[in-house]
Structures are given as structure tokens and as C-alpha cells.
Amino acid sequence: FVEPGNKLPAHETSGERGIINFQQMTNTTISITAFDYAGNSDNIKIIPQIDTFPLKNYTPNTGIEVDFKTKKTIDFGKVKLDFNTETFFDTVWVSLNETKASESAASPFYEILPAFTPVFKKFTISVSCPEIQTELQKKLVLCWFNGDNKPQSRGGEYNNEWIIAQVNQFGKYALMLDTLAPQIKALNFSK
Known about the structure:
Mean pLDDT: 83
Order of helices and strands: HEEEEEEEEEEEEE
Strand content: 35-45%
Structural class: mainly beta
Distance between the termini: 58 Å
Oligomer: single chain
Shape: extended
Radius of gyration: 22 Å
Helix content: under 10%
């Protein structure tokens, strides 16, 4: 499916806005050829299979509406989201779920939904800092948690009791303390 804000030129000329209906195709092979600057090429052939997979229980029209053509700020209290124009390919409905985080997190988990929404341009997320010692405030970082629930730093800067970061995906976030010094470890060196 091609969303209204998608600017890829191939979708404008396909007639179906980039949608390929495999249910109408039988015994079809898709061939993709890639060329580099020097004229070298490689080809792959794909035989499409129709599989259906269930999406999470998500109703697309719940939450706060964000039109992809306009700027929008959403204030959830402890979390603020700032979207510029064309952050998304289409209008989305944004919601936030707060749940208790693990002991290693300095804040609750904030799950920004819908997690599977494609983001075209980065947006700003601001998370209120928990009560913490002044010297540790600058060590707070915003982390995004992958499907295995492992944190991945998204950075952020401390500003007046908020951690503010530019991110490019929805999903589960929390603040964590980065208090470990980096380690340098030599590899493949003999003593």
C-alpha cells in the first residue's frame, strides 16, 4: 500500500499507486536486477507466496490525530511529542501507554503507538526526568527497546528537567542512566 505522502516516483506511474495484488497473479515470478555505476549487475528472482499475518490488536483511529501535512505537538504530561510537516506518509492516530519498567530504567516504559507506523522524518520526543541527584541528570539517556526488550540508546540532551531527543520510530522508550565508562579492549594482539 502506498500512502499519500510517499514521494517515490515509481508509485505515481504504476496505475495502482504501487500496490501489487498477488491474489490476482498465479505462477508469477518477480525479477529484480540491480546495477552499479560500473555497469555490473546482479539479479534475483522471487516467487511470491501469499501469507497473512495478524497485526497487534490495534484500532487505527484511536488516540490523537496527526495529519501528515501539518505540524503538531502532543503533550501527554510526562512525554511530549513534536511532529513537523511530512513526518508521516499519511494521517496517524498517536497514543501513549505507560507501564512499569525494569529496575535498571530510571523512568516507566512509555510505549508510543502505533509501533509499526513508518516515519518519514525524525520527530522530537521529550521525557520528564525523574527525581534524581543533580550530578546524575546529565547522565540520563533516552533508550528505545527492541523486540527482545533490549535497550538501544537514542541519546538526548538534558534541558530544564526534560530529556529531549530526535527519533525516527515509535515503540517502547524509557530513560536510563549511563554511568559506565567505556572500555577499550585490544583484539588479536599478542602480549
